[in-house]
Structure to design on (496 residues):
């Protein structure tokens, strides 16, 4: 049997780590890079380039090069997020037969799952090269706020890549594991993870090797990419005022501004002022504009505020006050922005923890967890008690939503509720599964539905149906229904 590794499959960067002689290590590629950009470029023969080489092609071959595809995992083509992505990216997003998204790259069509699988396969090969032995198992991290479909898509990507995914681990939980590794502490901490595409915040208690998540909240469509787009719009608006040309209508120009904007954003974490220069953005013009740190901060202020709101709500779900928190861990490249650090320090009235590498800590935690799942004598020992982030339930009469598993319930878990038929001789019931915190069904996100037919004819309210929701350790939901009178049951796979 091969080795098991930890993989942080990020929106921007993928990081691979292993536990080697009891110490977690980030895997380097043959050029010494410690991150693998989550970018894939495909030519007309279907040959894929992954990582740094593909990243360079975002500018030269924007219509054949995909990035930030994690934001499309398990998402419907008509979802708000896919509609937003379609306006922004250089590649073409199309509807798939099952309602999800496909990506058209030149003459090739791939799904976000297949593209993710190419990144995972490259990550696996990097680890095999570094370790000199086969790797066939991995713990893969996902945003804590990923829903069932997004998790199922990630699981499937691992399968396509030839990896057995032993566990989908929540990213903030992984960061906490890395933080707590070899540290004997009894602490209540907050993990604030603002990466390239997603935002998660978890409140945890660590004690004697037990990691108990108290609450988790987030937004799977809020990250550094959105900070970049604010600057892109600022630059494009300025250019339009000066020249009358809207650069957003030209995909190649758009990718060039996006690239320049991201670089300027990162520079402004170290300097107060920088100049964005994109030569010959149109045949007649260069794009040139000085941007200050203050301007950038004003452009993204509401995004930073949104993360603070989510953080406050996570604390309130955990039943804690700001002053109950012993330590705040900042994870994700976007937390390198000074304004983000200041906002968090301001909220908690303390400096966040230093000594955690924001881009590597999640992969390290995944490697520690992967090692703990082996039966080796020196395997690290810890207990993880994670939670489900959403209320999960079904539609009931009157357009209402009945939660079956409330958010922040420990997983794995299982809950059963009995429902009665509403009409005489009713033969079938439709079970519609949703997530969300509204009392009204249609305000919550639809996850899937099934019909249980062949019920025993009887006057209304006499025939009972028991619906069971089970959430496994990967955070995936399994729903089944049974008529207790007959023992007849139906199981459904949750799908859009
Ligand atoms: N010095 C910096 N200042 C500001 N932002 C930065 C800096 N360095 C990196 N970033 C931003 O951090 C983001 C990438 O962070 P990271 O690698 O943690 O994301 P990820 O793990 O790939 O994404 P996610 O966790 O959301 O799936 C990018 O948007 C990048 O522009
Ligand atoms: Mg990340």
């Amino acid at each position: 049997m091969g080795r098991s590794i930890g993989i942080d499959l990020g929106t921007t960067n993928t990081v691979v780590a292993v536990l080697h002689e009891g110490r977690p290590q980030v895997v380097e590629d043959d050029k010494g890079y410690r991150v693998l950009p989550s970018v894939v470029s495909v030519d007309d023969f279907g040959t894929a380039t992954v990582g740094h080489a593909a990243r360079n092609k975002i500018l030269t071959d924007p219509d054949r090069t995909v990035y930030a595809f994690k934001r499309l995992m398990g998402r419907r083509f008509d979802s708000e997020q896919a509609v937003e992505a379609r306006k922004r990216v250089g590649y073409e997003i199309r509807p798939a037969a099952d309602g999800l998204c496909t990506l058209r790259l030149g003459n090739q069509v791939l799904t976000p799952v297949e593209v993710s699988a190419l990144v995972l396969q490259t990550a696996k090969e990097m680890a095999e090269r570094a370790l000199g032995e086969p790797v066939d198992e991995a713990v893969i991290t996902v945003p804590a706020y990923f829903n069932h479909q997004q998790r199922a898509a990630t699981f499937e990507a691992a399968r396509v890549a030839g990896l057995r995914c032993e566990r989908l681990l929540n990213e903030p939980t992984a960061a906490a594991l890395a933080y707590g590794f070899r540290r004997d502490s009894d602490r209540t901490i907050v993990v604030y993870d603002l990466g390239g595409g997603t935002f998660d915040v978890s409140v945890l208690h660590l004690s004697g090797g037990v990691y108990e998540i108290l609450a988790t909240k987030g937004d799977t469509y809020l990250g550094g990419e959105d900070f970049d787009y604010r600057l892109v719009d600022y630059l494009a608006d300025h250019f339009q005022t000066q020249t009358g040309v809207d650069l957003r209508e030209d995909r190649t120009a758009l990718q060039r501004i996006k690239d320049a904007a991201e670089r300027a954003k990162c520079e402004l974490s170290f300097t107060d002022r920088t100049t964005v220069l994109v030569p010959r953005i149109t045949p007649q013009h260069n794009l040139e504009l000085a941007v200050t740190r203050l301007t950038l901060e004003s452009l993204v202020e509401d995004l930073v505020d949104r993360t603070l709101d989510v953080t406050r709500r996570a604390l309130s779900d955990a039943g804690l006050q700001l002053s109950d928190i012993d330590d705040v861990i900042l994870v994700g490249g976007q937390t390198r922005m000074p304004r983000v650090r200041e906002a968090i320090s301001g909220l908690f009235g303390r400096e966040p923890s230093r000594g955690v590498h924001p881009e590597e800590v999640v992969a390290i935690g995944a490697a520690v967890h992967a090692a703990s799942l082996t039966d080796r004598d020196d395997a690290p020992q810890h207990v993880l008690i994670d939670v489900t982030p959403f209320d999960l339930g079904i539609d009931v009469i009157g357009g209402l939503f009945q939660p079956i598993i409330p958010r922040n319930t420990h997983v794995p878990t299982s809950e059963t509720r009995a429902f009665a038929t509403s009409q005489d001789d009713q033969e079938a019931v439709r079970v519609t599964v949703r997530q969300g915190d509204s009392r009204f069904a249609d305000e919550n996100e639809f996850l899937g539905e099934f019909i249980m037919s062949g019920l025993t004819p009887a006057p209304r309210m006499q025939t009972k149906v028991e619906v069971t929701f089970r959430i496994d350790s990967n955070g995936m939901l399994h729903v089944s229904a049974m008529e207790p009178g007959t023992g007849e049951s139906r199981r459904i796979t949750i799908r859009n």
Remarks:
- The first helix runs from residue 52 to 60.
- The pocket of magnesium ion (ligand 2) is lined by residues 8, 10, 171, 195, 332, 362 (CB under 6 Å).
